[in-house]
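Quick check before the chapter quiz. The format below is the same one you will see on the exam, so make sure you can read both the input and the output lines.
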Amino acid sequence: MDTPATRKLIASANVSLDGFSAGPDGDNDVMWFVEHVTDNLSTYFEGVWRGSTTALLGRKNYEGFYAVWPGITEDAETPVRQRELGVWMNEVEKVVFSNTLMELEWENARLAERDLEDEVRELKGAEGRDLIILNSASIIQQLLKADLVDELRLNLIPATVGGGLRLFGDGLPRASWDLAAATRLASGALGLQYSRKT
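Here is the expected output.
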């Protein structure tokens, strides 16, 4: 009997040249990234995100995304590409990991029913296309430590922020990755795709 295929887990994150995914003021300090957002970057994001049918979010990213994306989708003035990304964000299954949220208002969003590693193992064995972590550094770090991440999609932003939340903290296991693709984006950012060596 054939073994069912395991869904791939993609960690997608924006990272500054000095290794941070958020600046000194935390998740609210993102202007170093926003100034590099162009139609070209939105097109690139769309190509990364659309292959996934489940998105994993921490509380802060869930709250930040929920504050922005539904409005983008409803605003007729929003460029078509961004609006289509907003539709994807609304429709994709969103699994949120939080110790403080009791309920979620965004459609197709649910709180994780298990701890992070057990929830991800369950999701990887379920039907569907790939899973994607959307820029939640703490989730990415924990799942790297658990050896559950199959692919890294890093958007290397040509900026230094001088401090904040490091994407790759201390204590990660040694691992090797193959560069599968590199895309130069219009703002000077690089889209880097790394696959875990087996």
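If your answer matched, good. Residues 59-74 form the longest helix (16 residues).
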